[in-house]
């Protein structure tokens, strides 16, 4: 029994040391941004501690409705391992982004469509702040977006507005219109951006939306059906290969 306990303790210490070693190889910053209407937005910016790299290409992560930036599973680590910076944003009403200008808690469950309409501008506001505050390390001349559901919609609309377009956008469980965020026209505007659309097995509504959105794409629009029968952020949780597939796709566009 004693030997068993010691073995378990040894494994635990190895796990702790491995985690600490991994964490020590990255710089992680909490980003606080005030939106145009005073809403308080929270994000995390993580990038490798590598003095030989002057600038890190960046991947922006935008979660699904009802989730937050902690739900990306292994994707963030897979992107960091490939040498990218990761900007994970809590969309207003989610995660740590729940305080309005009056510091009153605001949940996505209570928000009107007019509040959701501010998502694209919120994303741009965060990106611009990161560019200004981390000008020597993080840059958005070579970057990508991964969004799920409403996060994908916000990413597409933000990319349409921002001057430096992303190299690629990955959409998980895409929708044509949600909370008045309509994206087909913006997809048509992104004529030099390639798309990867991901759906779960049996996710018929998202696959119908995907087929419709593909008609507006001016460049490559690839699709992937995960073997698991779920949707959105839960695809990453239940499909162990999906984060590596996404990271590999992005690497094709952002690698030197």
Amino- and carboxy-terminal Cα gap: 53 Å
Strand percentage lies at 25-35%
Mean pLDDT: 90
Structural class: alpha/beta
Uncertain stretches: 1-22
Shape by Cα distribution? globular
Helical residue percent band? 25-40%
User: Biggest sheet: strands side by side, in what order?
Assistant: 1-2-4-3-5-6-9-10
Order of helices and strands: HEEEHEHHEHEEEHEHEHH
Assembly type: single chain
Largest sheet data: 8 strands, mixed
Walk me through what this model shows.
- The chain is globular, with a radius of gyration of 19 Å.
- The longest helix is centred in the first third of the chain and has 23 residues, at 2-24.
- Helix 2 packs parallel to helix 9 (242-254) and helix 4 (119-133) crosses helix 5.
- Mean pLDDT is 90; it is low at 1-22.
- 38% of the residues lie in helices and 25% in strands.
- The protein is of the alpha/beta class.
- Helix 2 links the parallel strand 3 and strand 4 (85-90).
Brief descriptors of the model:
256 residues; disordered N terminus; 9 helices; alpha/beta; globular; two-stranded antiparallel ribbon; 10 strands; eight-stranded mixed β-sheet
């Amino acid at each position: 029994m004693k030997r068993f306990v010691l073995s378990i303790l040894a494994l635990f210490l190895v796990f702790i040391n491995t985690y600490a070693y991994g964490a020590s190889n990255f710089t992680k910053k909490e980003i606080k941004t005030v939106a145009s209407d005073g809403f308080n937005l929270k994000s995390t910016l993580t990038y490798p501690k590598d003095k030989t790299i002057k600038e890190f290409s960046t991947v922006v992560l935008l979660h699904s409705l009802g989730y937050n930036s902690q739900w990306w599973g292994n994707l963030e680590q897979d992107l960091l391992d490939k040498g990218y910076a990761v900007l994970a944003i809590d969309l207003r009403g989610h995660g740590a982004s729940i305080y309005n200008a009056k510091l009153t808690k605001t949940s996505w469950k209570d928000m009107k469509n007019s509040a959701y309409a501010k998502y694209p501008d919120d994303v741009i506001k965060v990106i611009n702040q990161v560019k200004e505050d981390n000008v020597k390390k993080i840059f958005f001349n070579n970057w990508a977006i991964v969004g799920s559901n409403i996060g994908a919609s916000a990413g597409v609309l933000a990319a349409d507005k921002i001057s430096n377009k992303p190299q690629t956008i990955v959409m998980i469980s895409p929708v044509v219109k949600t909370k008045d965020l309509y994206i087909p026209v913006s997809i048509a505007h992104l004529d030099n951006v390639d798309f990867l659309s991901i759906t779960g097995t049996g996710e018929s509504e998202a696959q119908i939306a995907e087929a419709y959105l593909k008609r507006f794409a001016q460049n490559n629009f690839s699709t992937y059906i995960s073997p698991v029968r779920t949707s959105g952020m839960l695809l990453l949780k239940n499909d162990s290969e999906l984060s590596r597939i996404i990271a590999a796709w992005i690497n094709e566009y952002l690698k030197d």
